[in-house]
């Protein structure tokens, strides 16, 4: 007699816990892979070289754009196909933060300084700290709120922030690599775009503070 264990060993039966990762989560994982490749490429770019590798910068910009677009795709598919999972709810924002914060870290790094030491990207170190601080705050609020059983899904402010951050990253990279190909006005507007992104990033955190107000007040009462 053929036992269940024989069938399992032969691959005819799969245990219940061996579930296939759904498509939205596969896209999220693919975005993480793209982020890693993007970081590797950005680490190779150095504007201080006599002939910076502009083609590499263009490839990185395109890769970042594709990765950012997949953020909207996996969320749409998860809702449409009713495939929202705990893994996706946790891992999707994590990958988004890795992608965006990593991009701004590189834009503020030495690779985007010219031979004279001037910052080409207009992204300062303190801006990265502000963006990182906002993301860490929202992550902490999400953990505390959802641990209490309340919903803490991304709102319109957070999504608009992500879009603006992504557009700014691509804009900065393209205008740095092709400053003479773009109208001078667009290049001159780059620092204003960067400052606007930082401002919107900060302001987008306040709605999340309001969402978590109940949990925060409960914590303060239980711990005077």
Give a verbal description of the structure.
Helix content is 71%, strand content 0%. It has 224 residues and is mainly alpha-helical. It has a single domain, classed as CDP-alcohol phosphotransferase transmembrane (TM) domain (Four Helix Bundle (Hemerythrin (Met), subunit A), Up-down Bundle). Helix 4 runs parallel beside helix 6. 25% of the residues are buried.
Provide the CATH architecture: Up-down Bundle
β-strand amount: under 5%
Query: Main beta sheet: strand number and arrangement?
Result: none
Count of DSSP strands: 0
> What is the highest CATH level, the class?
Mainly Alpha
Kindly name the structural category: mainly alpha
Q: By CATH's scheme, which homologous superfamily applies?
A: CDP-alcohol phosphotransferase transmembrane (TM) domain
Please outline the helices and strands.
Layout (H helix, E strand, L loop, with lengths): L3 H7 L12 H22 L9 H27 L5 H22 L17 H23 L8 H22 L6 H5 L1 H14 L2 H6 L1 H10 L2
